[in-house]
Design a protein that fits this description.
Blueprint lengths: L4 E2 L2 E2 L31 H11 L1 H14 L1 H6 L5 E8 L2 E5 L7 E5 L2 E12 L3 H67 L5 H36 L20 H11 L1 H21 L5 E12 L9 E12 L7 H67 L5 H36 L4 H4 L8 H8 L13
Length: about 475
């Protein structure tokens, strides 16, 4: 009962009788089905989006970028070691008594190793490492929020294709019905049963239906393009989708409480508060003394130029303490600035809580009303079908005009389109509520796809002190 697509446009087969308009409802259950293709389920589509969506993959890369801040800041605990070498040619002219009178050619050169170890810097390294960790945890929550957005967008794309395919089927079936209605009206006009006005009304209704069908086809093409963009594949044969029920919280109070504790946008903002607090401590570290140890070993050859063959081996180990007294006031401004940034981040977090709560309340109301809307839409379709059948019977005996029949047909069409839309909205609203709570994930949906674990890359690089190759923990 589903039609195959050629070039993205549905080709409806001819149908007989007025019941043809009802076949559009079946299109809600399948997009197009071929005998050699298995239906794509919503689980399979979401799994493809989870693996292929570019927004999700770039956010995973952003988490890996944040991971590298751990070894970057941890480097403050480690010594800095460098080697140096010098070499050259020196010519000296000596005058006076002794065997070394005349020109003396020497080759002075130096080899050395130096290291610098920071002993204490006002806990700035310690706090910088902790800040980097908070930023990593925050990026993970941003990734989790992106996963929710991508999965919900993919679900919407999937349902949009189903919805607009069904609407296109309804519109094309309506065109078929109106073509038959126009043929019958012209036959009745030829025998004098109706007037030219009736024929014009039927022609106008047919032209309007054809325009509506073309608009629906254009909308479907846009849906297919969005599906390809978010999921990474062309929709081939889409299976029906049921709304989520069991994972949904039982009460609005429970849903709000879960969202305030688990929603990734809120958790990410809380990690931002932690990072801002640590930034205050890092800024305050500029007021504390710093202690360092510097050591070097140097070997010089021919150091005095005119004394060839001389070698000098020198080594040193020097400790130093620097106590800041006044540096122009920049450090004080930096501390005040970081405190204001902390206050700003706390306000952002409170605002994010309000935003999430509003999302949950709105999504809860939409989801709760969806079932009633679907039930009312079904009743509307049933009543419109009875009304159309009655109007047609009355028209046969002259009690109704052609315009009455056309209006009844359009009322039934609009009711069926509304039913398709309400069924679409019921599914999307249930997933939208799950996302607003903060629990829309592949694990809770039970998708058969390997879960991306950001901890793998984190563990690979957190103690990586040397090396240029990026690890494979992606």
């Amino acid at each position: 009962m589903c039609n195959r697509v050629n070039g993205g446009a549905l080709r409806a087969a001819p149908r007989s009788g007025h019941a043809r308009i009802g076949v559009g409802i079946v299109a809600m259950a399948c997009l197009w089905l071929s005998t050699d293709a298995r239906a794509e389920t919503i689980g399979g589509a979401l799994a493809k989006a989870y693996l292929n969506n570019p927004n999700l993959n770039q956010q995973r890369a952003a988490v890996r970028v944040a991971d590298e801040n751990i070894p970057k800041n941890y480097a403050g605990y480690l010594p800095q070691v460098s080697a140096s070498a010098t070499g050259g040619v020196e010519n000296a002219q000596l005058a006076g008594a002794g065997p070394q009178n005349g020109d003396v050619l020497s080759h002075p050169r130096t080899l050395g190793v130096q290291f610098n170890q920071q002993v204490w810097n006002g806990n700035r390294t310690f706090n910088s490492v902790r800040q980097a960790e908070s930023q990593v945890f925050g990026q993970r929550e941003v990734l989790r929020n992106t996963e929710q957005t991508v999965l919900l967008s993919a679900l919407s794309d999937y349902m949009n294709v189903l919805r607009d395919t069904a609407i296109l089927e309804l519109d094309r079936a309506n065109v078929d019905v109106l073509q038959e209605q126009l043929r019958q009206t012209r036959d009745r006009f030829n025998v004098g049963e109706v007037t030219r006005t009736d024929v014009a009304q039927a022609e106008a209704s047919l032209s309007g239906a054809q325009a509506t069908a073309l608009t629906a086809q254009s909308t479907l093409q846009t849906d297919i393009a969005n599906y390809r963009q978010d999921i990474g594949d062309e929709p081939k044969s889409l299976a029906p989708v049921s709304p989520l029920t069991r994972p949904i919280p039982k009460t609005l109070t429970e849903a709000v409480a879960i969202s305030q504790a688990e929603h990734p946008a809120i958790v990410a903002s809380l990690h931002g508060v932690d990072a801002a607090e640590l930034n205050v401590k890092i800024s305050e570290g500029a007021l504390y003394p710093t202690a360092t140890v510097t050591g070097s070993i140097t070997k010089e050859y021919d150091p005095f130029g005119f004394t060839t063959g001389t070698q000098v081996l020198a080594s040193s180990l020097i400790g130093s303490v620097t106590i800041p007294i006044y540096q122009g006031g920049a450090e004080y401004a930096t501390i005040r600035q970081s405190k204001e940034s902390l206050s700003q981040q706390e306000i952002v977090t409170d605002q994010q809580r309000d935003v999430v709560r509003a999302l949950v309340v709105g999504a809860w109301g939409s989801n709760q009303n969806s079932l009633g809307i679907v039930r009312a839409s079904k009743s509307q379709v049933d009543a419109a079908e009875v009304a159309l059948a009655g109007v047609r019977e009355e028209a046969k005996v002259g009690q109704r005009t052609t315009l009455d029949v056309l209006n009844a047909q359009q009322t039934l069409l609009q009711a069926r389109v509304q039913l398709v839309i309400s069924q679409h909205d019921q599914v999307v609203n249930s997933y939208g509520l799950f996302a607003a709570v903060g629990r829309l994930s592949i694990t809770r949906l039970g998708l058969s796809v390997p879960e991306y674990d950001p901890r793998v890359h984190f563990d690979q690089v957190k103690n990586k002190w040397i090396g240029l190759r990026t690890p494979d923990g992606k």
